[in-house]
Structure formats: C-alpha cells, structure tokens
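User: Here's a structure from my thesis project, written as structure tokens. My advisor, Dr. K., wants to see whether a designed sequence matches the one we expressed. Can you design one independently, without my sequence as a hint?
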C-alpha cells in the first residue's frame, strides 16, 4: 500500500539512493531541499535531475541556503564539488517549484494531515523553521524519520562527536529535537554498522537500468572515498533512513531515549546527547534504530536500481 512521503534532503550521493528508493514504493509528494552536502544551487539542481532520471513529476522546493545561526562547512570532499560526483551531467529541463520549501512542508502537512511520512535526510534547517512557524506541525505528520546524530559520540565531522547533518546546523537540530514529541532516529553509527559490501554494491549499480547507470556515475567518487578512508563498505546513510521509513518492519532493535543537542561545547558542538539511563526523567523523543535486517535493506536498495 502506498503512502504520501515528503523528503527533506540535500542531494548528495546517499540522498540520491534514498530518493530512488522512495519513488519505487511511496507517493513522493515533494522534495524540500536544504543546503548541506553542497550549496543550495547544487542540491536543488541535483534534486531536479534525479526526478527527471526517475521519470517522475515530483515537485522540488528550494529551501534555506544557510544554517540558522552560524556558517558551516559542506561535505563536497565526499560527494564532489557539485554534490553528485562531478560527472558533468546535463541539467534537468524542469525548474524548481515557485514555493519556498518551508511553506511547502506546512502546506503538504495540511493536505495530507494524519497521513504524511516525513523523512529528513539533511541538516534540519527547513524543518526547524517550519516548526517555529507552526508548532502544530508534528500533530499532522504521521511519522518523522531523521537521519542524523552519533548516539555514542562516534561522529563523522572534524568535531569528533558530531554527525554531519546535526553538526552543520546544531541550532536547527535543537529546535526539532526539542519540539518534535517522537521521531525515529537513524544515526551515523547505525549506518556504519549497515555499510554495504563493496563487491555487492558494484554488482547492483552495474545493472542496465538507467537509474542504476546514473547512480553508478554519481556515486563513483563517494565510493572511492569510502574505500580509501578505511570504511568497511559503502556507507549510504540516507538510504538506511529511507529503508526504515518505507518498511519499519526491517528494524530489529531500537531503543526509545531522550536525545538533546549540544550547542555550546568547544569540542562537542553538534553532539547528540543521549540519556541512555533515563537520569533526566525526560520523555523519550527519539526511537533510536540500532539494527535492521541487512538483507531486506539491501533488497530495497537493489529494487530501486532496477535489480531483483
Ligand atoms: C549525512 O550527512 C550527509 O553528508 C549525508 O548525505 C547524510 O545525510 C551522513 O552523516
Ligand atoms: Ca543527506
């Protein structure tokens, strides 16, 4: 059964895989685009191109070009200067919708009230602004899945404990984590545990399907980065979050805990602070996904690229 899905994203190589997966199984009502992996002009262009490759009509909404408070460094060193592996692809013929991403999030949440699944694969800038504009937003969203954080402090940024999406805009993450009563959290450490075997990944992206061919090209640089930086396989963080959004039954282990965002630490800004033992007696906002069924996750990825 299909369901309405809104993706807040900064495409991004792993975002691209997640967006491909979503279009195979859900009614994707929009891509709201943030800055993050690279600047907004590129993330919007990449979103539009991907929608064209898929052959969909999904509207793409440009969102916030900068974090809420402080500037942040992008992740072009992983994703390429254009965020899609610098392949020099021909831009899509269609342009972005004439509505700001934050307004689109609020409108779509009203149009699909009680049914909408929201998947946040980017710094939480757009979502934080939407929540500030309308604190009732969570009551209209059936489910929020966030890719972000590093729940035991093993992040992926130069500030050791911070994960990229949270570290890029900690204030936005704070607004969302403090204001959204309950969400699923797929953190970086879970993504590392569910990396894809390189040989398996190479096989899947070598399918004849045009989606696989496009993905093989844009992911080449990121794959090389993964291999040359001691990662046990290809980490596709946003794809794991999307798999959890599309099929919650793949989750094998999860724990509900209160998670807060560190805003001030000189070496810990952007850390996700988990109250593992419930010492603060605060309600658990995050359902922290710890383990998923890897075979079923991989089946969702392969299917999105035209495989079995
Ligand atoms: C997250 O940061 C981005 O670089 C990826 O697209 C993903 O959303 C992983 O830390
Ligand atoms: Ca992303």
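Assistant: Designed independently from the structure alone:
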């Amino acid at each position: 059964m299909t369901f309405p899905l809104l993706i807040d994203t900064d495409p991004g190589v792993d975002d691209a895989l997640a967006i491909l997966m979503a279009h195979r199984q859900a009614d994707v009502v929009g891509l709201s685009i943030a800055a993050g992996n690279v600047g907004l002009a590129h993330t919007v262009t990449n979103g539009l191109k991907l929608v064209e490759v898929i052959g969909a009509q999904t509207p793409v909404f440009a969102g916030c070009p900068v974090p809420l408070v402080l500037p942040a460094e992008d992740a072009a060193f992983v994703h390429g200067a254009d965020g899609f592996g610098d392949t020099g692809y021909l831009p899509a013929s269609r342009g972005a919708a004439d509505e700001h991403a934050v307004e689109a999030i609020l409108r779509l949440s009203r149009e699909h009230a009680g049914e909408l699944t929201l998947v946040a694969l980017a710094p939480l800038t757009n979502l934080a602004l939407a929540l500030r504009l309308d604190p009732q937003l969570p009551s209209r969203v059936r489910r929020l899945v966030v890719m972000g954080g590093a729940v035991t402090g093993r992040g992926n940024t130069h500030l050791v404990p911070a994960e990229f999406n949270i570290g890029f805009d900690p204030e936005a993450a704070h607004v969302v984590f403090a204001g959204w009563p309950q969400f699923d959290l797929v953190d970086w450490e879970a993504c590392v545990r569910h990396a894809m075997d390189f040989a398996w990944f190479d096989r899947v992206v070598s399918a004849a399907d045009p989606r696989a061919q496009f993905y093989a090209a844009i992911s080449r640089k990121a794959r090389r980065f993964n291999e040359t930086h001691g990662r046990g396989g290809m980490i596709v963080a946003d794809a794991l979050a999307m798999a959890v959004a599309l099929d919650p039954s793949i989750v094998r282990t999860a724990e509900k805990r209160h998670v807060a965002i560190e805003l001030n630490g000189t070496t810990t800004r952007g850390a996700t602070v988990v109250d593992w033992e419930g010492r603060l007696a605060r309600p658990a906002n995050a359902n922290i996904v710890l383990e998923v069924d890897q075979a079923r996750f991989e089946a969702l990825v392969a299917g999105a690229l035209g495989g079995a």
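When you compare it with your expressed construct, this may help: The domain at 4-304 is CATH 3.90.245.10 (Inosine-uridine Nucleoside N-ribohydrolase; Chain A).
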